[in-house]
Amino acid sequence: MTDAARITATISRLGHQGDGVADGPLFAPRTLPGEVVSGIAVGSRLTSIRIETPSEHRVQPPCRHYKSCGGCQLQHASDGFVAQWKTDVVRNALTAQGLETEFRPVHTSPSQSRRRATLAVRRTKKGAMAGFHGQASDVITEIPDCRLLDPALMAAIPVAESLALAGASRKTPLSVTVTASDAGLDMFVQNGKPLDGPLRIVLAQLAEKHRIARLTWDDELIAMEQPPVQPFGPALVCPPPGAFLQATKDGEAALLAAVLEITRGAKRIVDLFAGCGTFALPLAQAAEVHAVEGERDMVAALDAGWRKAKGLKKVTTEARDLFRNPLLPEDLNPFGAAFDAAVIDPPRAGAEAQVAQLAKARTPVIAYVSCNPVSFARDAKTLAAAGYDLGWVQVVDQFRWSAHIEAVARFTLKD
Ligand SMILES: C[S@@+](CC[C@H](N)C(=O)[O-])C[C@H]1O[C@@H](n2cnc3c(N)ncnc32)[C@H](O)[C@@H]1O
Fold first, then answer.
1. Annotated binding site for S-adenosyl-L-methionine
2. What domains are defined for the chain?
3. CA distance linking residue 302 with residue 315, whole number of Å
4. Which residues are annotated as catalytic?
5. Sign of dihedral through CA atoms 408, 94, 247, 75?
6. Is pLDDT of 415 > 80?
7. What is the mean pLDDT of residues 99-116?
8. Could you give the angle at which helices 197-209 and 156-167 cross, rounded to 10 degrees?
9. Which pLDDT belongs to residue 128?
10. For the segment 242-281, what is each residue's pLDDT rounded down to a tens digit?
11. Neighbours of 384 (CB within 10 A)
12. Which protein residues are within 6 Å of ligand 1, measured from CB?
């Protein structure tokens, strides 16, 4: 392609994936608002991008892998810019629903704090390689100097490579979800060769050699030297393999601090989309908690953690699909024992059905933790229409250098 094919464009905003957007729309990855860029348009995507006039917010990416690795999207922007952009995305989503509120300063997790990641690992002619996929590509980039991952996860890279040597086919890369736990690495492998007797023996030997706390191959437990427990308040929970956990311990602590502040003084709390008990178990130090979650294994893990812990108030659990079968006002206000606060932390789709029922039940205080500003704003509108005040929002940037946005908000029922 010659320079004659190049076009020039001015970036007006960032899209939801963090790409710069110019008129068209034309998407230009790794550009910033106000920048004049040139490149070759391929459909709605600008490629071979040159920055003609850089933004004042453009910085040298801290990681040497950034150019080829797709693990991060926003390392070329200053921390201040990213914090403001994430705040503005949430603010604009609320404005579109006719809502406004106070925003607390963004809490950003430090570099090298990601405690859970999925590595792509494949066999090569010479051995094996592990890393992240490149931007919109199948090519795997090795990441020996990654700025994102906790050092404990970095230690998993050579281990993941030895697992690929033993059990990856030549064609399909392994997907290895690694979680750091106090007991060691929790490794959950998918897309490997089917398990047979010899492979099982080799994998068990590797688990022992590398002191992997737990190794799971598809749905089969290969070895568990120690349960890979996570502390939630005074409880220790052993999550099911690959189960959801907040991305960083630092982010989890910031979200929990906000949730504790919002629900302070409540005697009975319902935790909706409770996972393995990230919020329910610490909350149970001061309140009785009913934890509801769709995945049975996670509910069982939460319950087992509570039963072994000392000093917690009563925690009841329920496996329930809260999209199809939300808790109703009669569940939320059982005779003589209504919940005086709710915590709700749904997946990206939000919690349309459950929020409508919370509003009907008039649960006085709601801590809403969200990973999607659009569904959050939609649900916030439902609560506002039912008489709730949106007191404040705090963005917690535990997905540093990515376009992903996490926030927590306080809703209280007006008198
Ligand atoms: C964002 S995670 C939050 C988990 C937990 N609050 C935490 O902080 O670890 C959302 C949770 O919702 C659960 N979930 C997804 N769809 C659900 C549904 N329809 N009904 C109930 N739970 C669901 C997932 O299994 C996951 O544990």
1. 246, 273, 293, 345
2. 6-58 (2.40.50.140), 83-110+245-413 (3.40.50.150), 116-224 (2.40.50.1070)
3. 9
4. 371
5. negative
6. no
7. 97
8. 160
9. 95
10. 999 999 999 999 999 999 999 999 999 999 999 999 999 9
11. 19
12. 244-246, 273-275, 278-279, 293-295, 298, 321-323, 345-347, 371
